[in-house]
Amino acid sequence: MEFLMNATVGQLIGSGFGILTFILLFVEFTPIKVNPISSVLRWVGERTNKELDVRIDKMEKKVEEIYQRQAEAEEEYQKREAINARIRILRFGDEVRRKMKHSQESFDQVLSDIDTYEKYCKDHPKFENKKTVRTSKLIVDTHDKCMLEDDFL
Fold this sequence. Notes:
- By secondary structure, the chain is mainly α.
- The protein contains 5 helices and no strands.
- It has helices at 2-6, 9-26, 36-97, 104-123, 133-149.
- The longest helix has 62 residues, at 36-97.
- It is rod-shaped, with a radius of gyration of 39 Å.
């Protein structure tokens, strides 16, 4: 109390300013949310990491592009596999029509091709299909007949 009586106005203002600074540095007021240390550190962090943030954003875009290209390549691969399966089905069907004999393993492979092709056609309705319907039926019927008669190559 004696300090307050003998202090000059400048000393009182300086002491008040010091106490106010201490309070503002270490106390966060709920309604106002003032925390200068957090604000200063956030500002320093933003300035320090600005270039890093830009590089991370660019990398994220590149990774997204890579994922997109990978998905497109996978789709193209599946389409190519379906087309190749169709080619093998039609070729095998032509051989069956010419009464060529085949092993059971050859039939198993072409039946797998038929499944692959039909699944792709079902999953991709815009894909031009219906090109192997009769041939697939012929192959399945011939396979069944060969199974009954044990007439494989």
